[in-house]
Amino acid sequence: MMLVIEGLLPFVFPELWRETFRKLVTLGDGQLRFIGITAMLAGLLILYWIK
């Protein structure tokens, strides 16, 4: 299921995905860590909400 969700954006919006990826590459380590922890917490909240 994760691969389906991850593959959806590049399939539907390839230019937007490419531009977003370019911006992510320029971020610092602290900013990437913040994005990572936010994504993990959002995923946990979604799992908790579904279950």
Please describe the topology of this protein.
Elements (H helix, E strand, L loop, with lengths): L1 H11 L1 H13 L2 H22 L1
Features:
51 residues; mainly alpha; 90% helix
Task: Describe the protein in words.
- The chain is mainly α and 51 residues long.
- 90% of the residues lie in helices and 0% in strands.
- The chain is built from 3 helices and no strands.
- Helix 1 crosses helix 2.
- The two termini are 16 Å apart.
- The model has no long low-confidence stretch (mean pLDDT 89).
Cα Rg: 13 Å
Fraction in helix: over 70%
Range of strand content: under 5%
- Assembly form of the protein: single chain
Question: Largest sheet at a glance?
Answer: none
- Overall average pLDDT: 89
The N- and C-terminal alpha carbons lie at a distance of 16 Å
| Count of extended strands | 0
What's the overall geometry? Answer: flat
Order of helices and strands: HHH
> Number of helix segments?
3
pLDDT < 50 runs, ≥5 residues: none
Summing up helix and strand content along with how strands pair, one would put the structural category as mainly alpha
Short summary:
The protein is mostly helical and 51 residues long. It contains three helices and no strands. It has helices at 2-12, 14-26, 29-50.
